[in-house]
Amino acid sequence: MGILEVKGINKRFGGLQALGDVNLSVAENTTHAIIGPNGAGKSTLLNVLVGKLIPDSGSVMFDGQSVLGRKPHEINQMGISRVFQTPEIFSDLSVFENVMIPCFAKRDGAFRMHAIESIFAEKGIQQQADEILNDVNMLEKKDMTASSLSRGDKRRLEMAMCLVQDPKLLLLDEPTAGMARADTENTINLLKEIRAQRGITMAIIEHDMNVVFSLAERITVLAQGMPLVEDTPDNIKGHPKVREAYLGEAQV
Amino acid sequence: MLGLEKKDFRLLLIVIGLTMLAPFILNPFPEGSEMAQFNAGYPDLMQRFVIFGIFAIGFNILFGLTGYLSFGHAAFLGVGSYAAVWMFKLLSMNVLPAIILSVIIAGLFSLLIGFISLRRSGIYFSILTLAFAQMSFALAYSVLTPITGGETGLQLALDDPRIFGVAQTASGNIPVPAIFGLEMRASYELALGSWLFTFNAGYYLAALFLILSFYLAIRIFRSPFGMMLRAIKSNQTRMSYTGLNARPYTLAAFVISGMYAGLAGGLMASMDPLAGAERMQWTASGEVVLMTILGGAGTLIGPVLGAGMIKYFENIFSKINDTILHGWFAFLPDGLENFVVAIIHPFIGKGWHLTLGLVFMLVVIFLPGGLVQGGQKIAAMFRRKQPEDAQSKATEPAE
Question: What pTM, to 2 d.p., does this model score?
């Protein structure tokens, strides 16, 4: 029984079957990659997991509870954090404030009317934020406005914002999309580090096979909204069906 | 001090200083001089400065922090005014219960309107608030005449059933609003040489409320709650994927700013005990938007400056007429004098809106951060001249 159990998910957009009877089981303390050619339904599946889309049928259980019908912020409070393809950060706020906000969300829940207390008095939160910034090597940039960061730093910041919440499951949507080779390597190393040090379960959607095979312990292949195979990276590499689905798209 | 950082405390002290000394600061020109018409230190205008300052501070908590542009905040000010006048009519001429009730009623009213309007964001939110405010205006103007006095407005009468206090004074007049016996219209005039300074009880009461409002706004700006509001403005997607529910945060900000508007309305009625529907009209809602943007949305002091500037233009520029202009330019040859007066004519008197519009355009184009940004630019110029001072200022956040 995995920490995330997806069973028989169907989702139609008009005449298009975006997801057809998708099953997925992510075991605790592993890195699970979801791959597939363009239009395979990877992003749709991710949006179902975080509550942005409601499927037509099927069930999604996380940590023994159903996530269907819950709002994105409720699902986050259950312990699922998401990293976006283009980093979603609070660009107008400072780097330090960016990481303080998830600290407050974790401590105080979805809403708390703390309108009179001073931020400057929240020593515990500040310390937490400092620690995580130190972990991702961004402590010296804490007073910068987030919008002025480089793309790679924005990615690191977003990662830090997710990690500081200590999620049970971290969802990554193409974390290296559009990155230069060196940045991709850095991201792979950062993710490996996170995995090794924090033991956070990860589900990762990725196009770059290099990234997938460097990180994943299990791989699910989607094609045209259907799950094709689920296996270990070594078995996926030589799988004839996967080769067929990817023909001309990437080297497997 | 008072739970504030040093820099914020300094700002609070400046505001306290400015409001307490306003009768001096706003009357720099001696009585009877050419320039005396630019004096703004008379009670009626000073009261307006601080009351609209409170209104704008509250509006800024919603618009400046969350970015939700409400086009209906005058409705809350109007409701506050009506509540206060009813309190005068039914309970007593003491302004405190009237002000308290106007804050409560405006809070409840904004809870209702905010709850519905905040289901949408962006332009749809603005339109919803505008629609609600115009409905309130229409109701107050006609349907609810028994409560609001309709076209003539709600006024005190000689036969009001006041529970604490008298319906008429001994001389047969309507009593005036007061705080524990001190009448709002009571003024002390101080003549120094040819200068005349007026200290008005109503103004000082309103100024105390302004200081309190400003202090509370600083606390909100520097609180985790204030940070969440800025986060909503910055990125709502990240907000919800960080486990935070934006709706109650925006609603709380909406109600707080509605209560500020109610306080302003209650104070307005306390200075002059009548309330009219025109206070709720969309132009009044637009005015507070202008004040906030002109001064600098999202900054602490900006809205107060913006409110002061607009009220100054409204009351001082509108008083200048052609006769005064001819007096100023009398030194020019006749033809030229008439020409210059003809050029300036559209910008003064009733044309003060034109001047204000031009100023507003210039500010928005060249100083998108409002007057506060202008002040910062000037301060930065001075700092460049004194490099040894630069280090200490460089670490301050931009507010």
Answer: 0.91
Distance from CA of B247 to the nearest CA of A (A): 9
Please give the Cα distance from A88 to A102 (Å, whole number).
13
Three-state secondary-structure class, residue B19: helix
Residue A112 to residues A123, B172, B224: CA-CA distances in angstroms?
A: 18, 54, 9
**Amino acid identity, position B55:** F
B238 with A89: Cβ contact below 8 A: yes
- A110 neighbourhood in chain B, CB within 8 Å: 243-245, 248
Parent domain of B186: 6-282
User: Structure tokens of B99?
Assistant: 């002000």
CATH number for the domain that contains residue B116: 1.10.3470
Render pLDDT for A40-68 as a digit per residue (tens, 0 to 9): 888 899 999 999 999 999 999 999 999 99
- Whether chain B has a CB inside 8 Å of the CB on A192: the answer is no
Q: Provide the β-strand partners of residue A252.
A: none
Q: Is A89 in CB contact (< 8 Å) with chain B?
A: yes
- CATH superfamily, domain A1-79+167-252, is P-loop containing nucleotide triphosphate hydrolases (3.40.50.300)
| DSSP string computed for B49-80 | HHHHHHHHHHHHHHHHHH----S-THHHHHHH
Number of CB pairs, chain A paired with chain B, less than 8 A apart: 109
User: What is the value of ipTM here, to two decimals?
Assistant: 0.90
Q: Chain B contacts of A161, Cβ < 8 Å?
A: 238, 242
Name residues 132-161 of chain A within 8 A of B (Cβ).
161
Q: Which helix (H) or strand (E) holds A150?
A: none
pLDDT at B10 over 70: yes
Amino acid at B92: S
Beta-bridge partner residues of A169: A80, A201
* Cα distance between residue B106 and residue B263, in whole Å: 8
